[in-house]
Amino acid sequence: MNLPNKITVSRMILIPIFMVFLLVDLPFGTFEWLGVEIPVHHFIAALIFIFASSTDWLDGYYARKLNLVTNFGKFLDPLADKLLVTAALIGLVQIDLLAGWIAIVIISREFAVTGIRLIAAADGDVIAASPLGKWKTVFQIIGISALMLYNIPFSIISFPFDQIMIWIATILTIVSGVDYFIKNKHVLAKQG
Which domain covers residue 77, as residue numbers? Predict the structure, then answer.
């Protein structure tokens, strides 16, 4: 396994650790930051999520720089992103920081796209993430991070940055999903 793929796998390994800090009511208490009370364990979860998300850029950088782009990496990298985002969305719904329907829309799109990727892979084709899909991921990460940080620092001026980012992420999720299905309808046509 090459370096970029090891970085991708490390992102997947961080998911259960992230979930423990997000969902388990650990006895760390709370602290006030810029006028907002935030549980320490949620803050730690946010830092883990942000770090894990940043490894997505890192593995891609090394894959291109060291010419280590592989079919395995093209498949594993978006899967790791989906697992991390799915875990975060479900966790945010559980702690009442995100509406369930938004999580369902985003997760449904991710499952559908992964399904098409698996069908293509069975035929020997690898479908890499599109630029629109990458932007969708960026906005999902920003929105999720802002929610976990209780909209700090934007809470100072009562600006709903976290909600705006999640709405943009949701819209991009839908648009990129439709775009993905249109561009890869031939994969489904082979099956029908």
Answer: 3-191
